[in-house]
Design a protein that fits this description.
This protein has helices at about 20, 25-40, 55-65, 80-90, 130-140, and strands at about 1-5, 45-50, 70-75, 95-100, 120-125. The chain has about 140 residues and is an alpha/beta fold. It has a single domain, classed as Rossmann fold (3-Layer(aba) Sandwich). Helix 3 (about 55-65) packs parallel to helix 4. The protein is globular, with a radius of gyration of 14 Å.
């Protein structure tokens, strides 16, 4: 089964972001790790990244129209994009929110997620492994 993995703003620049917060992998390495973990759990991962809110909304519409499960790291949009939340709500298959860092242990503005309320669950704080855990959780949800 195909799974859409959506990454929000600045995640393509993991090479120059703080590795003590976001882990040691660059975006290409993260993408490949997600692809391998997805294959191991019977998924074909379509891993995308955009800095643009409208593009991410379009991808969520695509997931809704094509009945695709979604793993999404909305990055900074997590904390304020009601438009992404409304689009995420349209997805009929499970949608899991992931974060590399643990936003709840960081600055106060990161403590709010406007996405969590429309996600099946949220996984954060495990670096790139957050995505692997999300894939395992997705396989579990879809097997029910
Ligand atoms: C992030 C956490 C967000 O607060 C931040 O804006 C990001 C990445 C994470 O994966 O830890 O860009 O979503």
């Amino acid at each position: 089964m195909k799974i859409l993995v959506i990454n929000g703003p600045n995640l393509s620049r993991l090479d120059i972001r703080d590795s003590s917060i976001y882990g040691d992998l660059n975006y290409a390495e993260l993408k490949s790790m997600i692809g391998i973990a997805a294959t191991q759990h019977g998924f074909e991962a379509d891993v995308r990244q955009s800095d643009d809110e409208a593009t991410i909304i379009g991808w969520l519409h695509e997931a809704a129209d094509n009945n695709l499960p979604v793993i999404i790291n909305p990055a900074a949009f997590t904390h304020y994009s009601y438009a992404i939340r409304d689009a995420a709500e349209l997805v009929k298959k499970p949608l899991i929110e992931v974060h590399l860092s643990n936003p709840l242990s960081r600055e106060e503005f990161r403590h709010t997620s406007v996405i969590s309320g429309v996600a099946n669950g949220t996984i954060g704080g495990f670096g790139p492994n957050s995505y692997v855990l999300a894939i395992i959780a997705m396989a579990n949800l879809l097997s029910k």
